[in-house]
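Students often ask what a holo structure prediction actually looks like on paper. The answer is less mysterious than it sounds. You provide the chain, you provide the ligand, and the output is a string of discrete structure tokens encoding the 3D arrangement of the protein together with adenosine-5'-diphosphate.
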Amino acid sequence: MIPIIDFVIKILYSQSIISIMELKVDGVCFSYGSDPILKGVGLDLGRREIMGILGPNGSGKTTMLKCINRILSPSQGRMMIDSEDILGMKAKDIAKVMGYVPQNSTGDYTAPTVYEVVMMGRRPHSVGWQSSVNDDRVVWESLRELGVDVLASRPFNRLSSGQTQRVLMARALAQEAGILLLDEPTSNLDIRYQMEVMDTVRDLAKVKGVGVCAVMHDIDMALRYCDKVVMLDSGSITAAGEASEVLTPENIMETYGVRVTIDRNYGRPHVIIL
Ligand code: ADP
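The corresponding structure tokens follow.
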């Protein structure tokens, strides 16, 4: 079944090619100075999967995404995209396969309009500085996908934080990367856009085959959207696996020190703080 789905997706997206990839991270260590922040963390992100990275503030979630994206260099460990070692890849090649949306980005972007910011996502694919008709098409598709096409001509630095978040997601989408790393993708969004952004993320994973690794705080959202969850505490993984198996009252108590119950009476499970 899966190879047939793969084949269909490749045909459907033969115009805007998104390579379907797997990410494997193993034994990654990172320190800021002499402070060990990540102590041998790993994860396995399969095709079409959404993985949530959860854990208390300061547990190392952002640092882990930055190591995977090579913004930071781990001191130990292995990180592979399919059979390619991320540590041996050039920045431009990493940007072709991984899109990264940082947390609360105020937009350190010099491009004046929303359209141009999203067009920056095409740079890893371009030869020289000239953008092509295909680049323009991909940018508009990405803008529409995130519902920000109406903002295309607006100055980027005058958007609300929720709009900024969605534009940066569109920019990552325009990269046509097979793996998306999202740092708190819904943190500045109202409830409607939280759902819309996560529905888009789910479509990207399930329809286009993108693998998504997202730092999340909202346990209900993680239960609703994530296939897998990794729980981090003080730079170590305390639990990993299927979302519903990891997000248990026992694990939540152990990691966050909060007593909860999981209510399964209304369709999807959700967390009630006791
Ligand atoms: P999380 O995303 O789980 O909130 P972070 O990965 O942002 O955690 O941070 C993990 C730890 O690393 C925290 O103790 C934080 O203070 C520290 N840290 C983050 N960035 C830096 C930095 N640039 N220099 C020194 N320490 C940092």
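The longest strand covers residues 35-45.
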